[in-house]
Amino acid sequence: MVLLTATARAAGPVYDSVQGGFTFQAPKGWTIYKQPVEEYPALFGPDDEDGPSPYVVITEVDGQPDLFALGDATMKELLKDKLYQLSKRDAFHTADDRVGLKYVLITPMPNSVYRQIFYFVEGPGDRRFCFLATVPEASWQKYDVFMDNMMKSYHLRAGVTPPSNPGDAEAMIAPPTVSNTTAAAMPPVHLPTRVAGK
Description:
This protein is α+β, with helices and mostly antiparallel strands. Helices cover 18% and strands 34% of the residues.
């Protein structure tokens, strides 16, 4: 059993997406960066002495009748590539008591190993989202609990008190410095993307 430290329980910045219809609380010390050409933000963890900082990207996904089918179909497609190995599959509950799915993939790379953690959650209506975290193997255990807690804070916007300054909810924040090595080393992940307006 993992005991949560005060740091792991501490509140971080809130992201409230009017467009996506969801909100969640990032870990303390993490940065939410609204990407100029993407619909949803990226999240960056703090600088890490063990290697590159972890980061999370959010994508709206579609193509399957339910969340379980979506998760399994995505894993089946990814595992065709021998670069990926499924390490763990689990379920969790969001703040509004919806079931979410978590898949942990090991990605062996030259000179290093990364983990990619896929969190699949329901959005409003029939919409679904994937939070894809990329974490260096050397520090994934340290960040796993932070990311799990973030996903457990996820909930749909209905009945949610709006932020005190709604204009800042999806505002662009200056991007943190991210190691180009991390981005270049990671293999591309292709998720089924929802077509706008459908």
